[in-house]
Amino acid sequence: MSPSVANSEDVVITAAAACCSLGEGRHAILEAMLRDEVRIDAAPAIESTFMAVDGEPSQPVRAAQAFEAEAHPGGDGDRAERFLQRTIMQAMEEAGLRDGVPPMNAGRPRRVESIFGTTLGGMRHLGRAMRTDDLADYAGSLTGTVTRAALRDTGLPLGGSTISAACASGVSAMALASTALLLDECDLAIAIAYDPISEFAFAGFSCLRLIAEGPLRPFTVDREGMRVGEGYGVFVLERAPDARARGASPLARVLGWGAASDAHHLTQPIPDGRGAARAIREAAVAPPDLVIAHATSTPANDAAEHAAMQAAFGERFPSIPVTALKSRIGHTLGAAGAVELSVLIASMETGRIPGAANATADRESFPTLDLVTSPRDRTVDRGVVLSLGFGGADAAIEIESMSVTEPTPSAPPIHALDDVVVTGVGILVPSSNSASIRDGELGLEPEALEGLDNPRAVRRLARFAQLVRAAGRLATDDAGLGEAEIRSSAAFVGTRFGASEYTLDFYDELIRDGLGAGNPLHFAESVPNIGSAQLSLGLGIEGLTLSTSGTRLAGIEALHLARRHLASGQADRAIVVAAEETHPRIRSILRRLRLLDERPTAEGAVALVLERRSAAAARSGTIRADLASTRIVWPPREGWRGSVDAWRMALQDTESEVCFCGADHASEGPGDRLVARATPGNHLKTGQEVVERHSVGPLLAVANAVTGDFSVTIGARDEAGGSGSAAIKAV
Description:
By secondary structure, the protein is α/β, with parallel strands linked by helices.
């Protein structure tokens, strides 16, 4: 059955909190910009330095470190959690939720969902752990641990899905939160975007030769590159009637959003900006009074972005002011769109637009660009924020001020609802009796991937990326999709650990040789959205692409977000992949953390093609199974009782047999006993898997149900306390 819809109701923003190098709070940040402040300077919170050369002093590390009254220099791992919790509490207070989340008027609990967007997640913890061998920091490097710590003592559920669309993550989190509200799958959504200042990001962009020597000069002739920044943005979103009913004062309305992928290059935008142009066209419901450009000040990005804006706005473009805020606060990575959106709201509230720093528009290259270079007094009723990321991820959002006299009818990309079905399956996993590639690690036979990809294109890619692309190809072939159908698809990839080998290699190089070191391929292939980026590049996918990471539930989370995306009509089909490498260091750490017993770990990938039922019927595709429902639930309280609550809610209304893929696999494990006691009225199957497959395990169980043509609900747990489910109905 299709979910209910509330798409005739507006989504409103009832709080917007932000923090970056220019201060805390959107008005403080705007006022600093209007005073012509630029805060890209010494960054003592970056964990390492450049190596000294020939006895000369090492070069200074300049970046846009977030403001904090009490400095915490160097390698404190929990920097992100500290800033996140403070920013979340500021948003909760502005939304009138400081004393907790009230029930709905009907008396039922208000359903709350948090969605986090980030580029690098808990990477600071990993760097600290690799130096100290501290197990708490190894555990803290997983995004599930970061989110739980950030949400503690906030009154919100202790977790949330973490997505990465690289530097488009903040805007993407807003779109996913709005989708959940309009599908009536939550009543209050918290969209959270963050990236702490880190050596990993600084060294990565440095080895890609994208760091500027001098000031950032967006859209100018002599622009030369970016500077890494730090930022945090938190938004509370609600349906307008719900906000009114509890007496909230909305700040802005969400008019629309859009997403696309270039399917062009991992680190370079497509020159004509066609992906970004598609995202803008979908987001811009009405002509904006201001565009906040992504504007990294790199030659290729600014040129492609200008082409995108020109194509999207056409003859209106010369009359639309464009500003570029990274020239003042650096590139805050996954938080960029969120921090910039908060400044847009402040500009709407004050009627003042901040200008780009150090900029004089290149009139020869950008003759139609109205670049704001000094403060302007102007009424801003509507504004667009554009974000672009690694792997060609493009995202845009348009909002409208609540003070307009004639509100624009919102037009989010939510269309007629439809059921979601499975039409293709791709399985690339070793069996439990496969030969070990290393002690305790199972791998695929070398010929398993033959013929599934271009050998020259993938020979240097991370093993994780190779697995994602190959499984995706298997699934699309199984579904009988043509090139045009694949091109218009969306891509969702889930993983617990991602490209672990390249990530660890890059960090080893960084720790050994300092900030100037590092293999650019290792960095580019280790970012958390590398799975969805490579799936887009390998298959030519031009729709929304994003990754979920950091939990055992990541594959089910990818399935869950894809189901929402299709049910709401934002795409006709999506390719969903869960994939994992295996690595001896990861295995050893998990054993020491007591998160793994003697079972072997395995590499592998599982892919599913999901389609709207109407889209499958239109192409005469074979429907293999119905995806009847999906749920992701996080603990409402601390301790094992919170985990039990999450498990029960994940299986609410489940009628079919439950197949458990959990934090414990053995039937006598404490987690299994807990789950068995908390699953009344269901026939529970546990202890079926003798191999640790991490995020691949639950999606493999889904694939087995589809190929075996039987109805079942797959339930999964994560050590952070979250639970997820996916109900498959055989046809």
